[in-house]
Amino acid sequence: MAAANDIDDLAGGLRTAVNRLSYHLRTPATEHGLTPSRLSVLVALDKRGPRRPSELASVIGITAASMSRLTEALVEGRWVERAPDPEDRRACHLILTEFGRTALDDLRTEGTSRLSQDLGTLSADDRAALSRALPILVTLADLRLEAAIEAKTRESVT
Fold this sequence. Notes:
It is a single chain. With 158 residues, the chain is mainly alpha-helical. It has helices at 4-25, 27-31, 36-48, 53-60, 64-76, 98-120, 124-157, and strands spanning 80-85, 88-96. It has a single domain (7-121), classed as Orthogonal Bundle (Arc Repressor Mutant, subunit A). It is 75% helix and 9% strand. A two-stranded antiparallel sheet has the order 1-2.
């Protein structure tokens, strides 16, 4: 069994490395005027389809006021558009525009290409080690997601 200090050291090193890598993977988005919050909304709309701004605010963890400002920026940037909510005409849904979808696809391609170039500089052994670690990293990410969903569920019940 691993000592607590070993696990804490591993957790700290992994957190630092993932944060640094994540920052650099977002660079293409920021170069195109997409802040992390804007990108989060586009990804959520791409994965979940049209949503009310209030639902998106909850998904990405921001206030209604912040979501309102974010919505204006996304509409002005032509990444999303408003559409009437089919269940409540007083409300609206945000929809990813074709421009937004293309921008998101381009950013994913560009980010993957940059990361592929970086991976190409590693030794075959290092790439194999990353390949073996990938399912473990996905499991850790899923655990964090499940914990966040549980916390939101508990929060909404209280």
